[in-house]
Task: inverse folding
């Protein structure tokens, strides 16, 4: 498997995790999806997402990062910044 | 000389744990400096000392300390502290209990079975024989029964619940609230404010707006039944992210924009996750909301946190079918809002008015929109 393919698989896995927490079909989540556009993405679900992603990827989000995440894209970028996603 | 005393940090605990000293014995401590860390059932808190001087520890951490206990002393000079420390050491040595007399066979048995002097001393005998050690061994070898020991935080929750049921003659009412307008505003604000504003945040703001019209609901009731009204609405909100139940307080919720409240609530959830609450986050409330909006939770009867007069319970969103104005079947969302109230101060009529007012604010577009503005107590009865 190439690096690119491996990165793609990781990104797909990430989207499946987010969708599972929000109880949605991954196809319903594009990069811009966030609390403002997804009804299920409540403040409680936001914390649930953080806890789940921290456990799976073995990372820790700072408070400002948690408060600043507003979309799937923000979440993915934050995980990439921690080296958890390629 | 100045005593460092365990202060009262909350209304729940009767003891706190001295976790650590922030200065060594003999250090010179400046005035008003934090000198030690105490742990309550829910948070860690610094102990400050008004007077500066030379520090002497009285209690060695970790140790459980009662309110008012002297844990350390501040002296004016090193000489004064050293005199005190020397006198204390002498006193401690003279207070040592006399040595035990343990027979040779008993001592051998103790060694073989790892029985300490402390356990033997606890028998309260001056001469220890083989039979005494055999009794201890038989107790030691017995398989301990499986048991669940609640955490300190959980014991504090249990104490509050017990106290509430013991002292408060509570009654309960519930109202059904249609959520269309609240959900619409929530979506609008999420886009405008870039904040996660859902039903809990709207309800906090809504309840705060009723402070001036319903002062008794925000009062503190005393054991004699008299109540003191509150100057502002400080709203406790249950937060449980799987690390224990906390009730942090949104201070002055009536005078703050809803986006600030939403951010603070999210910060509280992060603190619950990280276990980083301070006592100031958890104290000072005069009314509380229990968030029971997990899917499928239809109705919750909250308890009342002494000395509060009432507590609300926000339950999960539900769907129902109804016939619209032209007779067509449509779906709509609603939730139940429960109110437990202290019957010493509030009767069913006032409770119904209070819940009715919340229902009107959350269901009527013109009224709920005001919650998104930076207003104070604008919704009078």
Result:
């Amino acid at each position: 498997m190439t690096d690119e393919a491996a990165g793609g698989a990781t990104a797909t896995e990430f989207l499946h995790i987010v969708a599972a927490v929000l109880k949605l079909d991954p196809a319903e989540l594009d990069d811009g999806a966030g609390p403002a556009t997804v009804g299920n993405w409540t403040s409680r679900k936001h914390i649930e997402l953080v806890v789940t992603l921290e456990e799976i990827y073995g990372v820790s989000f700072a408070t400002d990062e948690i408060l600043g995440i507003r979309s799937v894209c923000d979440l993915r970028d934050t995980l990439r910044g921690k080296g958890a996603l390629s | 000389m100045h005593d460092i005393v365990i202060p009262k940090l909350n209304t729940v605990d009767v003891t706190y744990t001295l976790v650590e000293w922030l200065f060594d014995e003999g250090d010179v401590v400046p005035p008003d400096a934090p000198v030690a860390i105490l742990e309550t059932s829910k948070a860690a808190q610094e102990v400050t000392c008004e007077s500066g001087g030379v520090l002497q520890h009285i209690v060695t951490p970790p140790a459980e300390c009662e309110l008012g206990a002297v844990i350390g002393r501040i002296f004016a000079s090193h000489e004064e502290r050293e005199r005190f420390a020397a006198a204390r050491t002498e006193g401690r040595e003279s207070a040592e209990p006399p040595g035990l007399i343990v027979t040779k066979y008993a001592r051998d048995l103790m060694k073989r079975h790892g029985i300490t002097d402390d356990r033997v001393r606890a028998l309260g005998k001056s001469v220890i024989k083989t039979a005494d050690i055999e009794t201890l061994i038989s107790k030691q070898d017995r398989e301990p029964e499986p048991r669940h020991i609640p955490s300190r935080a959980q014991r504090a929750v249990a104490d509050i619940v017990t106290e509430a049921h013991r002292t408060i003659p509570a009654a309960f009412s519930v109202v059904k609230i249609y959520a269309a307008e609240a959900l619409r505003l929530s979506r609008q604000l999420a886009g405008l404010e870039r904040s996660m504003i859902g039903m809990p945040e709207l309800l906090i703001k809504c309840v705060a707006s009723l402070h001036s019209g319903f002062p008794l609901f925000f009062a503190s009731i005393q054991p004699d039944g008299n109540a003191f009204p509150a100057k502002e609405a400080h709203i406790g909100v249950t937060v449980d992210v799987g690390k224990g139940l906390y009730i942090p307080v949104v201070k002055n919720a009536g005078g703050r924009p809803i986006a600030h409240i939403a951010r603070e609530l999210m910060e509280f959830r992060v603190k619950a996750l990280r276990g980083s609450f301070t006592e100031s986050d958890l104290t000072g409330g005069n009314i509380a909301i229990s968030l029971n909006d997990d899917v499928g939770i239809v109705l919750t009867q909250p308890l009342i946190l002494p000395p509060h007069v009432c507590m609300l319970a926000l339950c999960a969103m539900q769907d129902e079918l109804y016939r619209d104005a032209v007779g067509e079947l449509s779906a709509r969302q609603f939730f139940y809002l429960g109110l437990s109230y202290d019957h010493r101060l509030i009767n069913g009529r006032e409770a119904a008015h209070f819940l009715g007012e919340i229902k009107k604010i959350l269901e009527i577009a013109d009224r709920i929109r005001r919650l998104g503005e930076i207003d104070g107590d604008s919704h009078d009865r």
Remarks:
- Residues 93-97, 374-381 of chain B have pLDDT under 50 and may be disordered.
- The longest helix of chain B spans residues 78-94.
